[in-house]
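INTERNAL AUDIT FORM
Audit reference: QA-55
Scope: verify that the stored structure record matches its stored sequence.
Auditor: D.O.
Record contents follow.
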Amino acid sequence: MRVMALYLPQYHCFKENDEWWGKGYTEWTAVKRGKPLFKNHVQPRVPLNGNYYDLDKEGLDTLRWQAKLAKEHGIYGFSIYQYYFKGHKLMQRPMEILLENPDIDINYCICWANETWTRTWYGLESEVLIEQEYGDEKDWGEHFDYCLRFFKDERYIKIDNKPLLQIYKTFDIENLSQMLSFFNERAKTEGFDGLYVVSGKTAQGCEKREGIVDGYYYFEPGFTLKNDFSKTAQLKYNTGIIIRSFINKFKKDKLLERRINARDIIEPIINRSYKENEFPGLIPDWDNTPRRSYRGLVYTGTSPEYFEKALRILKEKKSGHKTDFVFINAWNEWGEGAFLEPDEYRGYAYLDAVKRVVDDK
């Protein structure tokens, strides 16, 4: 089993975030405003030793630290989110720093987070910040040329001489077949045998067209919540939302409206069968209330011990598969409470769990 950790680069300032969310906004801005909404609710989550890193100003030192920490604990590589909008790039600097410094010892691949940005965090989904468009062959060529420098990096993950490219929502791309044919031909002219394209199985949808992509990764917990949530658990969940939403109409101190026992999500994940080209997903914790306040979602009953048990089962399910990735959401999604990085509450417990499972032959 090769453990891949999804990696969020939104820990540095950039012009668009300043315009959309306020001067100096980074992911840490949301993380620091977290507050407890029920008994024993641990918020805000604080990085161990107050390590609120900056992936631009402190990018080199931080990436070296993260890579060393990941390798020491059995993480095979980072799946780094790429935000590319028909030539317009956001948050590209951390991955560029990684490319510029080959001494940083970590495998990695690109995960193209190809969705339109809206003010979802504030319930304003209709207010578009930047729209995802795909363009034509000229635009595809520019995108490929930008990615190529990373594909040629020795640390970039390849399968059968094919650079691994994850695309979050391939089902959103109308001309996907033509785009990927173009990418594959370009890759072959550069000495590769094409690209190995992995599509996300998400809460919003999955790729249904046959023979276009090479594999699928499960983006959890959203996929299971939408597609594999038992009717009993769903009834309990929806009833709780209705009751607490009604109460909140009359309360100044709001109740958290969405809570789910993590076992209702993890059990379907570990009981599922996975094909050779299907890669399971798993979460450590989940709590996106720093972003969404009382309208957020918290998975209760999470623990490093339960996470380790689940990871062992997924390791067994992928045993013997040539492509044996498991994708953890995430290395550093602090605003969603989904992170392997050490904090003041859990310490290194989740990383230690990964190491034990990976090292156990």
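Auditor finding: record pair retrieved intact. The radius of gyration is 20 Å.
Action required: none
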